[in-house]
Design brief:
The chain is an alpha/beta fold and 182 residues long. It is built from five helices and seven strands, in the order H-H-E-H-E-E-H-E-H-E-E-E.
Length: 182
């Protein structure tokens, strides 16, 4: 049974990190920046600032906020889902997995110019997300050919068990979605 659990990527009794905190690997962010142009970004679930650091390295203006204070110098106690205005015209984020739909709806309702959301490829499935995609079709989806490895240090260990992709939404986009592999 343990082998089957490993193959399917099941949790195997390990507890999830608090608040679904899994730092985004820097190579995942750089892969996005190699495909899409950004100039002024709000990272609204910044955790320890992993995405913001890559943006800094690429000279992209950014602001990082999070509900939780990870003692990393970014603004804390900011609940993105309760915000009423954008802090920057573009958003790049790796939201808590359980709130990805809500983060997408909130960003689009705030009028974000461009939203890049790092989520499991499984985000394509589901009735509620199907309705979201009818209303806001992603412009691009960048599927990782190599599985991402998430861990508390944010550094690569080995390939993970889940498929991830960057979903790119633009507020004025209402046609078909392009899928590419990175």
């Amino acid at each position: 049974m343990t082998s089957l659990l490993k193959i399917t990527g099941a949790n195997q009794g390990r507890e999830r990190n608090a608040h679904d905190f899994y730092p985004t690997p820097s190579y995942a962010v750089q892969s996005l920046l190699d495909q899409e142009k950004f100039t002024d970004v709000w990272e609204c679930a910044c955790g320890d600032g992993a995405i913001c650091k890559v943006l800094d390295d690429n000279n992209i203006k950014n602001i990082g906020t999070d509900l939780i204070d990870y003692n990393c110098g970014y603004q804390s106690n900011i609940d993105f889902l309760l915000e009423t205005k954008l802090l920057a015209p573009e958003i790049i984020t790796n939201p808590p997995f359980s709130l990805a739909l809500e983060f997408t709806e909130k960003a689009m309702s705030l009028g974000v110019k461009k939203l890049a959301l790092l989520v499991r490829l499984q985000f394509l499935e589901g009735v509620k997300r199907g309705e979201l995609f009818k209303k806001y079709p992603p412009k691009n989806i960048y599927v990782f050919s190599k599985r991402l490895s998430f861990n508390v240090t944010g550094e690569f260990q080995s390939g993970g068990v889940m498929a991830f992709a960057w979903f790119i939404f633009e507020n004025d986009h209402n046609t078909s979605t392009t899928v590419r592999w990175i």
